[in-house]
Write a structure and sequence with these properties.
The protein is α/β, with parallel strands linked by helices. It has a single domain (2-211), classed as Rossmann fold, CATH 3.40.50. Helix content is 30%, strand content 28%. The chain is built from 6 helices and 10 strands. The protein has helices spanning 39-46, 68-74, 90-101, 107-115, 130-141, 160-177; strands spanning 2-11, 14-24, 28-32, 53-58, 62-63, 75-78, 148-152, 180-184, 198-203, 206-211. The chain has a 6-stranded mixed sheet with strand order 6-7-8-3-9-10, with helices on both faces. Helix 4 (107-115) runs antiparallel to helix 5. The chain is globular, with a radius of gyration of 17 Å.
Amino acid sequence: MLQFTNYKKSYHQNLVLTIDHLELNTAIYHLKGENGSGKSTLLETIAGIIPFEGDISVNGDDSIKRNPIAFRRIINFAEAEPTFPEFLSGLDLINLFVKGKKAPTGQAEQLIEKINIGDFMDHPIANYSSGMIKKLSLVLAFIGNPKWILLDEPLNTLDRTSRELLFRLIRQYHTQFNTGFLISSHQDLDEAMMTTHRTISIDDHHLIIHAHEPKGL
């Protein structure tokens, strides 16, 4: 469960989002909203990238304010337009994440195979296409033992085959490890073959939860 308490995010005194109290059960959520509504801001605050007022915790235990290191170890995030140090290889970066996230032995190799980027792991990131950088960011998002995975526009630059691989991985992690997902996407995920449990929309600085019956999960 992902819990928000007295959450508030503003930029230069301009309110972006406010959440008095909210508990999100572990599920697959599609986060929707107009450009500038606060989707990326919400994900970045949960990931601990930008500051905010209030607190966010997982299962009432690990809190980003009280125990930020433990919290970040169980919250993984893939940005919409990821950038990485170009002098590193993909494998260099993955190894850093494996150590920081205390990933199980062999997990990274399995993810590299499932996302299908093994041929490029020894190459400098400077030589990666935008699609390869996106795939690398998705591998990193699944490393470790995440309780929640946050994906910001994960379908951008991915071809149909890569999308199917990603959706299969999302379903596997949710079913096998009870991992929750917050997926921000302008695209209709159902039409893209990824059925979600619930939709979250952002309207007038507030989150609105829309429940629907999952199909095909």
